[in-house]
Amino acid sequence: MKIEMLYEDDDLLVCVKPQGMPAQSDKSMEVDLLSDRKTYLFEKNGKKEEPYLAMIHRLDRPVGGIMVFAKNKEAAANLSKQMQDGEIYKYYQAILTGTLKHEEGTLVDYMVKDAKTNISKIVKEGTKDAKRAELSYEVLDVMETDEGILSYVLIALVTGRHHQIRVQLANQKAGIWGDTKYNEKFQKVKRNYKQIGLYCTRMELIHPTTGEEMVFKCEPEGEAFDLLDLEEF
């Protein structure tokens, strides 16, 4: 599988993760993006030792889009701190089944992850182990289709909780297209969706060495986003 590269220098490697590809090694034992990019660096540099490559953030397997890796420990520490301090901005485009109450707004919830089932859920504030989850959204378009109403939405992720966007939007009765884990409209579908209507299309960060403001962009791909052309949003 060919990986689209967006940027590379001595500190950073930025690429686009295909939908359905694991970000890192998992139980499936299928090729993951981290291992793939390490192989790419190994072959490119012709060195005998395994290249250093650290994943700064994650994308769920069925989600595609921009991923940033650090090529040395100093860059990894800097970027990890930026992430923890909320200084790396991530934007997603999404196709939802249903509509949101407002054309734009902010969702704030509290979430807990069940490590055994790998599922997160929204709970009351103050619940043990609950973490605050926040995102902002803007509805770009809404349309009626044979499958029902679909919404095309831009999302700015403020916090980075496990399955956060998927859980918060499902809680608004407007889940992500194709999401059999959280969207009730797809949970009874027998088809196995390896991709869902969620794509990280823009990231903003400060270069760990030069201090330059950097912006990376890509266009969303996949079956859900093909509906934009088919239905002429």
Query: What Rg, in angstroms, do the CA atoms define?
Result: 18 Å
Q: Please write the CATH class name.
A: Alpha Beta
| Overall form | globular
CATH architecture: 2-Layer Sandwich
Number of helices: 5
Terminal CA distance: 30 Å
Give a brief rundown of this model.
The chain is 19% helix and 36% strand.
Written account of the structure:
This protein is α+β, with helices and mostly antiparallel strands and 233 residues long. The protein has a single domain (4-230), classed as Pseudouridine synthase (2-Layer Sandwich), CATH 3.30.2350. It contains five helices and eleven strands, in the order ββαββαβββββααββα. It has helices spanning 33-45, 73-84, 164-171, 184-187, 223-230, and strands at 4-8, 12-17, 54-55, 64-70, 89-97, 104-114, 119-123, 131-145, 148-157, 198-206, 213-217. The mean pLDDT is 92.
Key terms:
eleven-stranded mixed beta sheet, 233 residues, Pseudouridine synthase, 5 helices, 19% helix, single chain, alpha+beta
Layout of secondary structure:
Elements: E1 4-8, E2 12-17, H1 33-45, E3 54-55, E4 64-70, H2 73-84, E5 89-97, E6 104-114, E7 119-123, E8 131-145, E9 148-157, H3 164-171, H4 184-187, E10 198-206, E11 213-217, H5 223-230
Parallel strand pairs: 4-10
Antiparallel strand pairs: 1-2, 2-4, 3-4, 5-9, 5-10, 6-7, 6-8, 8-9, 10-11
